[in-house]
Structures are given as C-alpha cells and as structure tokens.
Amino acid sequence: xxxxxxxxxxxxxxxxxxxxxxxxxxxxxxxxxxxxxxxxxxxxxxxxxxxxxxxxxxxxxxxxxxxxxxxxxxxxxxxxxxxxxxxxxxxxxxxxxxxxxxxxxxxxxxxxxxxxxxxxxxxxxxxxxxxxxxxxxxxxxxxxxxxxxxxxxxxxxxxxxxxxxxxxxxxxxxxxxxxxxxxxxxxxxxxx
Length: 192
Prior knowledge:
With 192 residues, the chain is of the alpha+beta class. The protein has a domain at 56-189. It is built from four helices and eight strands, in the order H-E-E-H-E-E-E-H-H-E-E-E. The chain has helices spanning 2-21, 85-95, 129-132, 138-152; strands spanning 57-66, 72-80, 102-103, 112-118, 121-126, 160-165, 168-169, 183-184. Strands 4, 5, 6, 7 and 8 form a five-stranded mixed β-sheet that branches. A three-stranded antiparallel β-sheet has the order 2-1-3. The longest helix is centred in the first third of the chain and has 20 residues, at 2-21. InterPro entries: GerMN (IPR019606). Residues 1-21 form the signal peptide. Keywords: Signal. It comes from Sporomusa sphaeroides DSM 2875.
C-alpha cells in the first residue's frame, strides 16, 4: 500500500513538473491587453536537451499587394520575440517587401505613431504623411486599408482595426473608403 502511495505521489509530482515546464510565464505588459502573440507567432522551442543558442523568434504575417493591384498576398517574417508584436507587424508593413513579385502599399515616408489594442480593436495611429503622400486611386486605397487591417487581424485578440491619422479618426485616406469606424478583415482581397 505504501509503495502504491509513493508511486502515485511521484506520478503526480512528475505531471505537475511537466505542466509547469510547458508554461513560459509570459504576461502582457500593463496596458497592453490584446497584444498577446498568436499561436503561429509563439516562441520556437529549442531541440530537446539543448539550450537556445540564439534569441527566440516569432512569425508575423504582413500583407503586400500583387503587381497588378488586384490582391494582397501574405508574407511571413521571422523576428525576435518582443512585447509589441502588433507594432512590429505594422513596422514591417511600412518597410515594404523584398519579394520582387509583390509591391508595398504604404505611401513613402509614413511614420507609425502608436498601436494600441482595447476591447479587441486595434487603434493604429499614423502621421499625416499617410494622407499627404498617398497617390490616390480606389484600388490603391483598398489595398492600403486591407493590408493594414488584415495584418493586424492576424492576431487572435484583434477583431477590428481603427485607422487614425495624427491621433484622430479620419473619414477617408484618399476619398474612396470610409475609415471613420473600426474595420473588419477582408478575406476576399487575399490571393488564394
């Protein structure tokens, strides 16, 4: 009887140890609710029995346009894990693409001021260059707005995106799409 109890306690202790080992202890920074890293952007585990020899990474999906301005195409980036993955994703969008089959959608010189997530809505704030340097055109504006919204809604905690310019809501970026309210993901413009 005593051996069975000892064996049962050992099994329980082993189970608790495995459960605790699976937790990374990461918690969002204060005021950063909703910026949790999605499962596909989680830290990559190191091979069994080895210590990580480099910084942990996460995968972020950013959308760029096809050359014919018809669709958005996801581009996967592997970047160091950080506490602001949504901001990092928008910075990657601003940087453009290195894929020669795709084109960036952001106007030149646009600066990101802030990304904040509250109640499943991402509030992404750009400087006024977003409007001033926009080349216009309905297709360009659809792809620009779609790229911002689709990039941010890749995160499970973000369901909608409110685009801000200079900290304020704007009616439109180039006169073709109403961006005065939070926008949902646009699957139909993603090339399958």
